[in-house]
Structures are given as C-alpha cells and as structure tokens.
Design goal:
Helices cover 16% and strands 38% of the residues. By secondary structure, it is α+β, with helices and mostly antiparallel strands. In the C-terminal section; belongs to the Cu-Zn superoxide dismutase family. Belongs to the CCS1 family.
C-alpha cells in the first residue's frame, strides 16, 4: 500500500472561494487526503496518493495555472553533497576590505528527483518530450509520475540505466541498472526496469508507478523511454527519450527565506595582494555572488 505524500504547488489564489473551488476539483480525484491553501504565499499543499500530474490537470481544469514546487515527505532528510571552498575578498558594510576564507556545504534532499526527457535526434525541433517526477515515500519505495508528449503511438519502456552519460543520447547510457545483478541472482526483474507507458494517438502518455528503490540510488543515472527495453539505441531515433535524473525540491525545500548577502569580490584587489581569485576568467562579480550566496536559513 502506498503511503500518502505531500506536494506543494504555486497557484494564483485571490480569495477563500478560490481555495474552495480548487479543493473541490482535487477531492474529485482518487487518493486525495487533504488540501490546504495559503493566500499570502499563493501555494497549495496537497496530501494523498494521487499522481502530481493528475493534480496539476485538476487545478488547470478550474482555469488556473499550477506549478509543482516540491513533493515528498514532510520530514525530508538531507545529505551533504559537496564542499565549496574559496578565498574571497569582502567589503563588510561597504567599509574596509578584508580577506576571508569561505566554505559552503551544499546539501541536497533525499526524497525527490526529476528527469527531463528529450530526444537527441537532429531532425526534431522541440527536443523535450517528457518528464519523470520521483518521490520517495518509504525507505525502499519511490513513486514515479511519468508524462510523455510528442511520441508516436504505442507502448514504451521506462528504464534506469547504469550510466549518466547522454552525450550520444540513449546509446551511451549503458545497460539497464542492476541487470547484471538480476542475471546473477535469477530475479524476475531488475530494479532498473520501471515499467511501461502507453502513448495514445495524440502522442501523449502518462503512468504512475511505484518501484522498490531509494531516490539517492537514482541521482546521476540516466532514464530512457524507448520502444525497446534492452536496446541497442540510436542517437537519431526521435522516439527514444533520455535524460539524467537529478535532485529536485522536496516538499519544503522551496519554502524558504531568501537571505541576500552582497559580497563584492574584487579580482584586481586579490591579484595585487597575491590572493587566489575565484572569478578569474569570469564576467560579472554580482552574478557569481548571487549564485553562491542565496541560501535558506
């Protein structure tokens, strides 16, 4: 049995009647446990087992846009991903210049990931043709909400591959993840085989799957959607989609206070003082400061 999870959406809400209208539409779906709206923050928190894509469609049916901001459990855990260590120059309060050593630990949530699926065929104008959202709701249970748009009608396999190399499209992604382990153990199916999605005559398909995997096991690997489960794949096949699975916002990861600390990095000052400049060869100090310093507290 799938445990309920939460999803948070940005939705234009002008009054309590708007929340009631959207809530009524959502409760018509199977698996909706609760709906909470916040007029101040313009967000909607939905708890249940319904696919996020189905929730978005239900909200859009009320005439409103909906953007998924995060999904997962309410007690997301975090793991340190990497450390950035820089020697930079700071002007505190626009006063005198001082040199500081800045270390930033970057943390990522464990329970949500996303994969943008696209074709690498050179003859296709619009390459992005699918999206997979993955939400971990138990230690070894992840829900997969797969949406496809723009493929030829038919049945397609969704598989996770050993490699995250998509330089040659699906052709460079390797074998199905854990297929060797499956062969050695004689198990029925590899954990890398997620399932099938049926694409209709309009080129659209959607499927909601659950797999015995953890999200952290998937990060950095590639996902392939193709007519053939095993391959081999052709880079120029417009009906074979591929993407790299990346961490996405958990349920409360985007609900944060933005703290802007303007750090003025003076490359020339660092050079003159024989300090190591972190912006050598880069244009625009402000952009680098924004990229590095906007963090949640």
């Amino acid at each position: 049995m799938i445990e309920p999870f939460q999803a948070i959406f940005s939705v234009p809400l002008s009054c309590e009647a708007c929340i009631e209208d959207v809530s009524k539409s959502l409760h018509a779906l199977d698996g909706i446990k609760s709906v909470q709206g916040n007029l101040k923050d313009q967000i909607l928190v939905v708890e249940g087992t319904a696919a996020p894509s189905a929730i978005v469609s239900a909200i859009q049916n009320t005439g409103r846009d909906a953007i998924l901001r995060g999904c997962g459990t309410s007690n997301s855990q975090f793991l340190p991903l990497f450390l950035i260590s820089l020697h930079i120059c700071i002007i505190p309060n626009f006063g005198e210049i001082t040199a500081h050593h800045l270390s930033l630990y970057i943390f990522v949530g464990q329970d949500a990931s996303v994969c943008i699926l696209e074709t690498h065929a050179s003859t296709v104008k619009t390459s992005i043709r699918g999206l997979a959202r993955m939400v971990q709701v138990a230690p070894k249970l992840t829900l997969v909400d797969l949406t496809i748009n723009g493929l030829d009608p038919g049945n397609y396999w969704a598989t996770v591959r050993e490699k995250g190399d998509i330089s040659q499209g699906a052709a460079s992604t390797g074998n199905i993840w854990e297929s060797l382990k499956q062969n050695l153990e004689g198990s029925e199916s590899s954990r890398g085989v997620f399932g099938q999605v049926e694409v209709d005559s309009n080129g659209k398909g959607n499927v909601f799957l659950d797999r015995p995997v953890a999200v952290w096991e998937l990060i950095g690997r590639s996902m392939v959607v193709s007519a053939s489960k095993e391959g081999p794949f052709r880079k120029e096949d417009p009906n074979t989609l591929v993407g790299v699975i990346a961490r996405s916002a958990g349920i409360w990861d985007n609900n944060k206070m933005n703290v802007w600390v303007w750090i003025l990095i003076l490359d020339e000052w660092c050079r003159r003082n024989q300090a190591v400049s972190p912006v050598k060869g880069l244009k625009g100090f402000r952009e680098l400061g924004e990229m590095m310093i906007q963090m949640a507290v």
